[in-house]
Structures are given as C-alpha cells and as structure tokens.
Structure prediction request, 111 residues.
Amino acid sequence: MSLRRFAVIALAVTLLTAGVLSWFASSNPDGLERVAQTLGFAQTAQEHAASDSPLADYRAEGVEDARLSGGLAGVIGVVVTGLLMGGLLLVLRRRGDPGPPDGRPTSPDRS
Prediction:
C-alpha cells in the first residue's frame, strides 16, 4: 500500500470517527466533572478563556442540533489540525539538510 493511499484511508477513517461516531458520545459528565460533583466542588469551577470560542464544549456555535453540532466540531477540529500539521511538515521539509555546497550526493563514511 502506498503512503498516499494510506494517508487518504486514515483521513477518511478519522473524519468518519469525528463526524459520525461522535453522535453517540455520552452527554453525561466526564470523569473529572463527575468526581467534582461527587466531592461537592463542581460549583467552584470558573469559565476558561476559550469558553466563548466557536467550538467550545465540543459544539459548533450556531448549530442547534446537538448531534450535528458535535459532529461538525469534530470534523472542523480534524481539518484544522491536519492543515496545521501539513504546514509544519512542509516547513520542516524545506529546512532539511541541503547537502554539500557543490550539489553532489554524499557517500557514507567508510571508516
């Protein structure tokens, strides 16, 4: 299997997981929230700096349907993360070792 084919399949599976399987995620509190509720300090929680961002709480702002909103937020997260990773890889690839100044390939050290 070629690397390109593998990448396309991996992207499809990731988007499917983020966009569709997230519909089945539990709406119950996660482990940390549950412990905070059980021990009685959940009411002391404060809003974080990104609480008013478009994808806060795993929901896409402006989408009323909770399942669609969660799936859309997952897909947007995958796409943005992929674009950032791809950009970083391009930058790192261009900064690679340029080789010797005369452009000839280097031979392995035969010591």
In short: The mean pLDDT is 84.
